[in-house]
Amino acid sequence: MASRDSENDDHAPVPSALKILVAGGFGAGKTTLVGSVSEIAPLRTEEVMTEASYGVDDLSGVESKATTTVALDFGRITISPSLVLYLFGTPGQERFWFMWEELSEGALGAIVIADTRRLETCFAAVDFFERRGVPFVVAVNCFEGADRYEVHEVRDALSLDPAIPVVLSDARNRESSKKVLLTLVNQVAARIAA
User: Residue 44: CA atoms inside 13 Å, Cβ hemisphere, count?
Assistant: First the structure.
């Protein structure tokens, strides 16, 4: 005979799982954002960079980077007992872009992290989500020492539709990362309502 507790567990609502991608250029802060906001220790596929990546990966602006994501980052955020967000950070190097197609399957939306020191590195992610009609926001990761730009300047530089939110953020800061996620969730909700 089942205990009373297990009977109650059988009737507990199964939470809805929503998939969010975190994409952008190499070294833009994808792994950092997933780690700052995840309620669990994030799964990371970080590997030490070797000489094999020199000449293949563009290290300009991130010369001190010692590790790189070779598959994905994974984190989780429980919004409520009925809603859980799963975050999937994509690899940023061009040689790993083939994985974006699989990772984007079933995604509710995406965050494109932009590094204004190397803004061109997020063009591929912006194009990827625009072509597939996946709702996304652009999170400008405000690195120390980097020139600061207004939201409209970043929007113009990326040729973004005015409906795509652009948020200034700090991927290291949990509250800032939560603000980016909330902006995306609001964008998706507005799109569904329309």
Answer: 17
Nearest to 115 by CA among 77, 161, 58, 72: 58
| pTM greater than 0.85 | no
100-135 pLDDT, tens digit per residue, is 787 788 889 999 999 998 899 899 999 999 999 999
Q: Are strands 136-141 and 83-89 parallel, antiparallel or unpaired?
A: unpaired
Tell me how many degrees the CA angle 121-85-161 measures, rounded to the nearest 5.
40
* Residue 115 Rama label (left phi>0; alpha psi -120 to 50; beta): beta
Q: How far is CA 12 from CA 3, 5, 40, 82, 178, in A?
A: 15, 11, 22, 10, 27
